């Protein structure tokens, strides 16, 4: 993908993000409910209510409110959370790394599990083992992430309590983190006890997010591998005496990756969106859990900031996937 193409995509992304901001802003303002009424005490006077409206800019017209908010957005100010009384940008900076680590770990697990299932299914094609692999993959595909989450809570936190149920790590851990990426930082700093504790807290939510995506990866990759196994270059390699496993890994896999990677990128955006309910189930302190509280409290500035953060993530993921697919496919890279 050329530099001009990347710049065009970035320009399109900016326009898309602006459109998302406009739609969310308007929908939140026309939706029923008064955020000020939800945060003010029952004995407040009309003057108190008017002062709060003025503080959060809700006493202005809709167009004026939007341009005030847009001016702040350009300056890097997303406003102040009505329910948490804190800077929205600061809140996103605190919570977003937790969600990124959760989604990133789930993606890695999904690729490993899905890739393994696809390779096993390809090696077992036209044999009884293929039906077993396809059946297991169908089970993973049929069960949504929140059902997996509830099942894991029941089995591994209630019946056999081997994993912590809530939180990101034990509150007794005393470590001075330089960043909010606790998992990555503890690994880089070789704090393996802390790293293991964080992993134990992430295990159930990561698996709940990863298993449905793994089933999609397995299905797409297996189809691409079987198609590649019928190509002439694979037949030539087979005539040279290569084993089926080497044919799959060395010959077919690299040609099956681009299509799988493209679909995985699209599904990964749904995985990031799925963190909302998963974080709520496990009381995981990420942006998804905060989004539910923001909606319940009708915290307009915080909802707008969270939606923009999700929109920016989706656009960045899609752009990264396009670049990766172009890098793996010479016809797209030089086209």
TrEMBL record:
Transmembrane segments: 66-84, 105-126, 146-165, 202-221, 256-282, 302-328
Cross-referenced CDD domains: TM_PBP2
Topology within the bilayer: Multi-pass membrane protein
A GO biological-process term: transmembrane transport
Keyword NAD: no
Pfam family, one: BPD_transp_1
Main location: membrane
Keywords: Cell membrane, Membrane, Transmembrane, Transmembrane helix, Transport
Any Gene Ontology CC annotation: plasma membrane
Compartments, as annotated in UniProt: Cell membrane
Family membership: Belongs to the binding-protein-dependent transport system permease family.
Name of this protein: ABC transporter permease
Source organism per UniProt: Salinarimonas ramus
């Amino acid at each position: 993908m050329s530099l001009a193409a990347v710049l065009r995509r970035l320009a399109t992304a900016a326009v898309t993000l602006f459109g998302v901001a406009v739609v969310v802003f308007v929908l939140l303002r026309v939706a029923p409910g008064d955020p000020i009424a939800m945060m003010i005490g029952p004995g407040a006077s009309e003057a108190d209510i008017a002062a709060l409206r003025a503080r959060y800019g809700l006493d202005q017209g809709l167009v004026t409110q939007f341009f005030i908010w847009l001016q702040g957005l350009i300056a890097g100010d997303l406003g102040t959370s009505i329910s948490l009384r804190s800077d929205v940008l600061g809140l996103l900076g605190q919570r977003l790394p937790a969600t990124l680590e959760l989604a990133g770990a789930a993606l890695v697990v999904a690729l490993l599990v899905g890739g393994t299932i696809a390779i096993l299914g390809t090696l077992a094609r036209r044999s009884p083992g293929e039906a077993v692999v396809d059946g297991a993959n169908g089970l993973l595909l049929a069960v949504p992430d929140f059902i997996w989450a509830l099942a894991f809570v029941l089995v591994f936190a209630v019946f056999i309590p081997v994993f912590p149920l809530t939180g990101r790590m034990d509150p007794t851990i005393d470590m001075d983190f330089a960043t909010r990426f606790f998992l990555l930082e503890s690994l880089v700093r070789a704090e393996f006890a802390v790293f293991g504790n964080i992993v134990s807290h992430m295990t159930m939510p990561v698996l709940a997010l990863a298993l449905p995506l793994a089933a999609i990866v397995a299905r797409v990759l297996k189809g691409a591998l079987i198609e590649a196994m019928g190509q002439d270059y694979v037949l030539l390699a087979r005539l040279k005496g290569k084993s089926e496993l080497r044919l799959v890994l060395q010959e077919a896999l690299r040609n099956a990756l681009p299509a799988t990677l493209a679909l995985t990128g699209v599904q990964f955006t749904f995985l990031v969106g799925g963190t909302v309910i998963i974080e709520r189930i496990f009381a995981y302190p990420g942006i998804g859990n905060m989004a539910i509280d923001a909606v319940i409290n009708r915290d307009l500035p915080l909802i707008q900031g969270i939606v923009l953060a999700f929109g920016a993530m989706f656009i960045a993921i899609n752009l990264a996937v396009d670049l990766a697919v172009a890098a793996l496919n010479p016809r797209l890279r030089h086209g």
